[in-house]
Structure to design on (252 residues):
């Protein structure tokens, strides 16, 4: 049987995952808590990625080397970059890139040295499965989440996007920084701090990986919603619903 890694960015998202795993048990490796169990018949390992590219790469390496996972799915939040990507939307990654990788002039900007690659593609079958699961999951959340927990976001208008997601070891919260990323990488939909590193590790090991991100902010100066409340009420609900829909139909 295959073993699937479910990697979360926030404690609230991990808690929502563990609530669906009735037989989970904990193993600690490299200071991280890995939870082994089952969900919809799948053997899964759930864990927090931790924040930043090095931490996420370490977590991914342990998942593969110690726990033998052969598929990796990440859920978390991100800042929206493209104009059409709004707070409350969901982005499924087609490809992942490190926006702060720059070994020029030895290598082209954004190219990961000695790989010849700037973008690491998400696994097509996992990505397509997420794209099928996400709209159904958004509807599940709209139907089940009390309207007072919507934080004044019209979740009925939330959309699912797919495209480039970029990662870097810097929290993007200034309009000038967001505008510079949009200028340099105009097809980037969202920005975060982990998944491109995870994708590189999975590429090195030949392990399929896919990622889905809930848009919590616009990666600029504007504070649209209370971030902790967004994570608690919306992002964790999205993550659990997307994974529930995904695992119902994903082949064992």
């Amino acid at each position: 049987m295959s073993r699937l890694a479910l990697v979360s960015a926030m404690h609230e998202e991990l808690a929502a995952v563990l609530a669906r795993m009735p037989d989970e048990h904990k193993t600690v490796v490299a200071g991280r808590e890995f939870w082994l169990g089952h969900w919809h018949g799948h053997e899964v390992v759930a864990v927090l990625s931790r924040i930043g590219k090095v931490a996420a790469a370490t977590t991914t390496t342990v998942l593969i080397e110690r726990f033998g996972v052969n598929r990796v799915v990440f859920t978390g939040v991100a800042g929206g970059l493209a104009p059409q990507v709004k707070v409350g939307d969901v982005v499924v990654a087609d490809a992942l890139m490190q926006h702060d990788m720059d070994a020029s002039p030895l290598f082209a900007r954004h190219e990961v040295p000695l790989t010849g690659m700037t973008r690491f593609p998400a696994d097509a079958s996992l990505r397509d499965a997420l794209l099928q699961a996400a709209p159904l999951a958004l509807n599940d959340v709209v139907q089940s989440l009390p309207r007072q927990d919507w934080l004044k976001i019209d979740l009925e208008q939330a959309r699912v996007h797919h495209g480039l997601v970029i990662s870097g070891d810097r929290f993007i919260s200034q309009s000038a920084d967001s505008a510079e990323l949009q200028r340099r990488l105009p097809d980037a939909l969202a920005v975060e701090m982990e998944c491109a590193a995870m994708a590189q590790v999975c590429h090195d090991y030949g392990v399929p990986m896919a990622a889905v991100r809930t848009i919590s902010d616009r990666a600029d100066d504007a504070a649209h919603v209370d971030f902790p409340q967004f994570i608690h009420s919306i992002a964790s609900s999205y993550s659990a619903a997307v994974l529930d829909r995904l695992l119902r139909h994903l082949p064992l």
Remarks:
- Helices lie at 11-18, 53-65, 124-144, 175-184, 195-205, 227-249.
